Amino acid sequence: MSVETLPLDEKAAQRGFLFALSAYLLWGVLPFYMKAVAHIPAIEVVAHRVVWSVPVAGALLVWLGRTGDIGRALRTPRTLLMGMLTAALITINWCIYVWAIAAGRTLETALGYYINPLFSVFLGAVLLGERLSRAQKLAIALTVVAVAIMTWETGGLPWVSIALAVSWAFYALFKKTLPIGPAQGFFLEVLLLAVPALGYIIWVEATGSGHFGDYGMADVWLLAAAGLATAVPLILYANGAKLLRLSTIGIMQYIAPTIIFFIAVLAFHEPFSSERAVAFALIWAALAIYSWSMLAGRTRN
Asked: Distance between CA atoms of 14 and 47, rounded to whole angstroms?
């Protein structure tokens, strides 16, 4: 059956799948970009991610004709405060991620994004009173064991993984409370962050420690590309999520950390001990159990 003869809902699902797949593939290979800017301080990279995302996200809103939503959001104190909260959480997540790639801890970022959906389920049970199935409880228990093994192997908590999972889970939770669309919400976040980010960039350039022009054109182009590297996958994901079932998105979210895992081991040659292999095996088993329970629930419904 050709695409032209598919029902409208199936066409929408196909478009949504391609949007989401593109987003997860871009997120998966993002460590290569982050490795290219590893010589630049993480906070400076994040500042450029913010500033250069503003025109990209703004252009999308102009094209969609939704700029009025931003004006209303800026005049609504509750929306503004929630936007500040989600902006702070995404900044924390970005800073940890950028620093971890530069520090040779890419495997820990992969583990963090594997843990994230299971932590979100745990968060829903604790904060929202959602009931956990036996399979979900088992998946969470296996995750706890995996984190314990990583703690024993490294001599301390895998804080990068935990911080990434926690910050992203809370970001997603509070993002749902924003009474505007995902594209408008992202623009609101980077708009709120743009003033301090631009101020920081001007300060480091004035003091001679900035990398936008002081260390050659390569850094200029790399930092300018931060907006596209940040905004494009987020926009693709937002459009895909609107057209797909939550369970489909739930399964697809493992694509990015899987790519990151292989990049860390095969391209960046990060150490992968037998203890780490056991920990990741437990995480994969937990995700398989969680995914099975989610798909089984969908079939029953």
From this structure: 35
